[in-house]
UniProtKB/TrEMBL annotation:
Keywords from the named record: Signal
Taxonomic lineage of the native organism: Bacteria, Bacillati, Bacillota, Bacilli, Bacillales
Protein's name in the database: Copper amine oxidase-like N-terminal domain-containing protein
Signal peptide per UniProt: 1-30
Entries under InterPro entries matching the protein: Cu_amine_oxidase-like_N, Mao_N_sf
Length: 382
């Protein structure tokens, strides 16, 4: 009898040990679980990471969220005040202070920011509020803070002679901001801006500003949109937008004291002083091909234009409208054949206008089969 009871006690102890062993992974998993966050962006996408809880407040690292939102972070000299700036969005916090500034107004931030391992941490609720998000929730079962609708404030900007030009990534709007800080919209460049954005500025002798905004996008970056504007004292007086595919060269900005504005189909030569259109040309009619054209040079007697697809540089006589295919005049047979038949990366010649000297135009041939740095001379007809 005592032996049986001892056996029962032994079996019970074994059973309890096995049961405890089965429970250990679950308990260990619960202990290892760390609070986290999942934030959904208004334009799509999600950000996630770990949360640090202090004094009943959930904090998250600010750097990654700021980058995702298009905000730049700057610190004051004391390294105690952090400023966050993006397009039409700014806020600032101070380490160990429960008050901050959001869009120019003092506000409570619901916690005290701190720095840990060189990283600034902010209360989750404040970050969501600052980024115009909502629906902040805490899931006790998954130990997760969630929120949605966080906005993005990405923009590409460059400043020239006191004017800052900004392309807003989310909307494709182009703004100009003066030294007073007042912004006004110049143009709509499309919807969401993808890819690279390049600004180029030319100050004319007559006091006008020629602005070019070039966007390169698509996969693999073979689409181009070129917005051109002429401004007088910061005010828009002329604009055009052109689109190109695969091939790209910069359009010329000026020629013969006139500014060049083109949408790829029409060329306007703008008077350098008044901003009025002095002359206009139908590029499709002159080039003879239904295509978008680059304008690579303008002189008193000529235009240098190139159709996007066929890619052969043409000299157009401004008086007669006569057309000269320059590759036929300047290149040898091998290079001519290359220009006509090779389609990698695209058809056409690689002639580049270098300069004018008297009645002679000089070009360089940048074709892969002959990059000889030689200057090819073309004499304008009398």
């Amino acid at each position: 009898m005592g032996e049986k009871q001892g056996m029962k006690g032994y079996k019970l102890a074994i059973g309890l040990a096995i049961g405890a062993a089965l429970l250990l992974p679950s308990a260990a998993g619960a202990a290892a679980a760390k609070p986290s966050y999942e934030l959904e962006w208004e334009g799509g996408g999600q950000s996630s990471g770990t949360v640090i809880a202090r004094g009943g407040v959930s904090y998250i690292a600010a750097k990654a969220i700021a980058s995702e939102a298009g905000l730049a972070i700057s610190w004051d000299v004391s390294k105690q005040r952090a400023q966050f700036d993006g397009w039409n969005k700014s806020f600032a916090v101070r380490v160990n202070s429960d008050r901050g500034v959001l869009d120019g107004k003092n506000t409570e931030i619901g916690g005290k920011p701190f720095v840990l391992n060189g990283e600034l941490y902010l209360p989750v609720r404040f970050i969501v509020k600052a980024l115009d998000g909502d629906n902040v929730k805490w899931n006790a079962r998954t130990q997760t803070v969630t929120a949605s609708g966080l906005g993005g404030y990405h923009a590409r900007s460059e400043t020239h002679n006191g004017l800052t030009f900004t392309v807003v990534t989310a909307t494709g709007e182009l703004y100009v901001t003066g030294e007073s800080g007042e912004s006004r919209k110049l143009a709509d460049l499309g919807d969401t801006i993808y890819g690279a954005v390049k600004f180029a500025f030319y100050d004319s002798p007559g006091g006008l500003l020629h602005l070019t905004v070039t966007r390169n996008y698509g996969e693999p970056m073979i689409q181009y949109r070129v917005y051109t504007a002429v401004l007088k004292n910061g005010e828009l007086i002329r604009e055009a937008e052109a689109g190109y595919f695969r091939r790209f060269v910069d359009n010329a900005t000026n020629g013969g004291g006139q500014l060049i504005v083109t949408d790829g189909r029409t060329l306007e030569l703008v008077d350098d002083v008044t901003g009025r259109v002095a002359e206009s040309y139908d590029l499709v009619k002159l080039g003879g091909e239904e295509d978008d054209y680059f304008v690579e040079g303008v002189g008193p007697e000529y235009l240098l234009i190139r159709p996007n697809d066929r890619g052969l540089l043409m000299l157009i006589d401004r008086k007669t409208g006569g057309k000269t295919l320059l590759y036929k005049e300047l290149l040898d047979k091998l290079n001519q054949e290359y220009a006509e038949t090779n389609d990698v990366p695209y058809f056409g010649d690689w002639l580049r206008f270098v300069r004018r000297d008297g009645d002679t135009l000089y070009f360089r041939n940048d074709a892969p089969i002959q990059q000889d740095n030689k200057l090819y001379a073309y004499k304008l007809p009398e």
